[in-house]
Amino acid sequence: MRQKAVSLVLCYLLLFTCLGVEAGKSSDDRSKDSGSGFWDALPYMVVGGGLMAAGLPVLGFTSAGIAANSMAAWMMSWSAVLNGGGVPAGGLVATLQSLGATGGGSAVMAKVGAGLGYVAHKTLASGKEEGDEEE
């Protein structure tokens, strides 16, 4: 259910950027503003999605288990030390390992990364607009 909700939100964001709708702007203003469209946001979304999808395996949360001498192994060690010798079920390490083992985590993480890439694009674009208005 949660994955469907995330997909729905990301689809909404994609449609919103494709249409180029901005509050308070007429269609003439939108045609002059080329920095808010889908094609400008796409590279940010691709990079963010790619980095987040590769994030779990790179950290060491693989389908074969936690990789030796990785960040995941370090996190598991510290989790066990802090919890008296065992890794708690439902904790951060257990959840990340579950996502890494099923492979479903990569799809979810890619969607989250694409969303973060979109937010980064909008933040940078709004900063450029403010800089242009001051000049």
Structure overview:
By secondary structure, the chain is mostly helical. It is 74% helix and 3% strand. The chain has helices at residues 2-19, 27-32, 38-59, 71-82, 92-102, 104-134; strands at residues 61-62, 65-66. It has a two-stranded antiparallel sheet. A hairpin with a 2-residue loop joins strand 1 and strand 2 (65-66). Helix 3 crosses helix 6. The radius of gyration is 20 Å and the shape is elongated. The N and C termini lie far apart (48 Å). The relative contact order is 0.15. The mean pLDDT is 75.
Give a quick set of tags describing it:
mainly alpha, 2 strands, elongated, single chain, 74% helix
List the helices and strands and how they pair.
Blueprint: H1 2-19, H2 27-32, H3 38-59, E1 61-62, E2 65-66, H4 71-82, H5 92-102, H6 104-134
Antiparallel strand pairs: 1-2
Helix pairs in contact: 1-6, 3-6
Unreliable segments of 5+ consecutive residues: none
The number of helical runs is 6
Strand content: under 5%
Shape: elongated
Helix content: over 70%
Number of strands: 2
Task: Quote the average pLDDT.
Answer: 75
Taking the sheet with the most strands, its summary is: 2 strands, antiparallel
Order of secondary-structure elements: HHHEEHHH
Radius of gyration: 20 Å
Which strand order spans the largest sheet, edge to edge or round the barrel? 1-2
Structural class: mainly alpha
Distance between the termini: 48 Å
